[in-house]
Sequence to fold (570 residues):
Amino acid sequence: MANFYTDNPDLKLHLSHPLMEKIVALKERNYSDAEKFDYAPINYADAMDNYDKVLEIVGDLCGELIAGNAEDVDHQGPHVENNRVIYADGTQHNLDACRKAGLMGMSMPRRFGGLNFPITPYIMAADIVSRADTGFENLWGLQDCAETLYEFGDDDQRARFIPRVCQGETMSMDLTEPDAGSDLQSVMLKATQDADGTWRLNGVKRFITNGDSDIHLVLARSEEGSKDARGLSMFIYDKRDGGVDVRRIENKMGIKGSPTCELVYKNAKAELCGSRKMGLIKYVMALMNGARLGIAAQSVGVSEIAYREALQYAKERMQFGKAIIEFPAVYEMLATMKAKLDASRCLLYETARFVDVYKAYEDIARERKLDADERAEMKKYNKLASALTPLAKGLGSEYCNQNAYDCIQIHGGSGFMKDYACERIYRDARITSIYEGTTQLQVVAAIGHVTTGAYAALIDSYNELPVSEELMPLKQRILAMTETYKATVAAVNEVNDPEYTSFVARRLVEMAGDIIMSYLLVTDATRGNSESMAKSAHVYVNMVEAEIAKHAEFIKSFKPTEIADYKPAE
Fold:
């Protein structure tokens, strides 16, 4: 029987990271929940055993059901009847199975019916689900919108809505509009109040993933006459109240099982979530950071299935009397795919652990005042998570697209046909570097961490971690890459020209990400004594060493005045 968790030992390696002991103790309030819930863990080992068992259920469900439904879901897709979304048959079966298995509201507290999982094992489940069916991961993964409800809703809203999510109701975040894509401060969906104080929403939302969900988080303009972010608030819309119709489902290239909807709000009843005017400034930013980590997990899942499909085909396909995996041109591609997969997965779980620590402290702060050391630690990990999230989403999604491309290439002409899964994987992969903030927007989010030295400081901290004797030569090469990176950043900072910095930002961000992932590979390979990851570390360092040299040479040779040559003619 296929199990997408137990067949991948790297997942257990990441789950057993030393930082998890702190994370679990914080999440479990030093295991005090065991006094209230008989299924709560009594210690760290008990908690890890619990995560392991639940992830095994996820892996079994994905390997035995969800992956098997993926092709039919892709062909059938959802449709609209009477302004409502009807899921593909396989999608509905998947959702029903996840509900029965208790895999909804995984990170929510037990008092609301959740599993109280830290972010890291929840993200691991998302990684596994994406490998099975990338489009279904969108529907299942939107349960993390409940995190925003938990953080910013009031006690009554938490009590009313979060248990419904834990019981299996679906969520969506309704942000984008026809004239407001990435520029969310241009959102114009109108929120007005009746005489009795009831909020009503009117307007159109577009490109809304799972747009006919049970519970919506909606960004709307609450302040009449405003035109910027300060006029936007966050609202909760309950489908039970009516007032929102699905005008159509977009006809997409990929993730076809995930209904991407255009919604029409007609005097829809809603309720304010949090404070007025803070919708975009605070709440959507938090929502988007969580979503970006989810897309990073989705990207790693796609990279995993792309690599596995390519590897299997290369072993079976015979040409010139032998399997094509024996040809250097093919096994070099496969090794590079595996290295990109392992590197992006290392970065994903490092980011998730950083998010876990600061989120746990934020939650504790709702119960009691943090001491000075706790506040300092929360601030430290918040900064680290903010620095790594755009790298995990941006670089992870680019690697996922590259692996999907190479998967088809290894299949040759067969890969262009719908007879093989790689054709669907290729189409599903493409969206990952676009939604929840394009790769270019991730670069914008990351470049400040380059110029201020935040990435350099993190890289220096990784240099202090132990590395095996076998991998020590790689560490020396990473040190040399780091010096090249620091010198390049210093040269750009010396120019002190915002346009020039923006122009070379992608290259600088990639350099930082390449070095961080190189360190994570060698240190994780050392910690887990993983021969597979050690091989990936060698391949990855060979690859990025050349990339960093290329970027450094380009920036060194490029004059700020040459930017004019790149601008479109008038």
About this structure: The radius of gyration is 24 Å.
